[in-house]
Amino acid sequence: MSGAAALQKERNYIAVIGDEDSVTGLLLAGIGHVNQQQKRNFLVVDAKTPLSSIEETFLEYIKRKDIAIILINQHIAEDIRELVDGHSAAFPAILEIPSKDHPYGKISREG
Questions:
Q1: Domain span at residue 80?
Q2: Per-residue pLDDT tens for 5-45?
Q3: How far apart are CA 5 and CA 13, in angstroms?
Q4: How many helices (H) and strands (E) are present in the chain, helices listed first?
Q5: Which CATH number fits the domain that encloses residue 27?
Q6: For the chain, does the N or the C end have fewer beta carbons within 10 angstroms?
Q7: What is the pLDDT of residues 57-72, one digit of tens each?
Q8: Is 102 inside any structural domain?
Q9: Within-domain flag for 110
Q10: Can you name the residues that pair with 67 across neighbouring β-strands?
Q11: Helix, strand or coil for residue 28?
Q12: Which helix (H) or strand (E) holds 5?
C-alpha cells in the first residue's frame, strides 16, 4: 500500500460544525464519534458560542488524522472565512452546507 493510500485509510470520520438541527440530523444518521482522548467530531453552534471556540474546533479538525470531511454550515463558515479559505490540503475536505434558517447561497457581507 502506498503512503498516500495509507493516509487515506486512517480517515474514517466526518466532522460537523453546525446549528443544532444540522448536527442532530447528522448524529442521527450515525456520524457521531468520541475518540480515546474524549474529543468529539461535532460542535453545536448557537448564538452564545464564542467565535474563538468555533475557530479552535475548526483548527483541531483540520489537524486530526482520522477526519476525512468537515461539514460546516455556510453561515458559520462565513464567520471563520479566513480559516476556511486558508485550508488548501486535500484532507480533510471541507463542504459548506445549508441550514434550515440559512438557505444555501451567496451570503451578503454587511458593514
A1: 3-97
A2: 555 678 789 999 999 999 999 999 999 999 888 999 999 99
A3: 16
A4: 5, 4
A5: 3.40.50.10580
A6: C
A7: 999 999 999 999 999 9
A8: no
A9: no
A10: 13
A11: helix
A12: helix 3-10
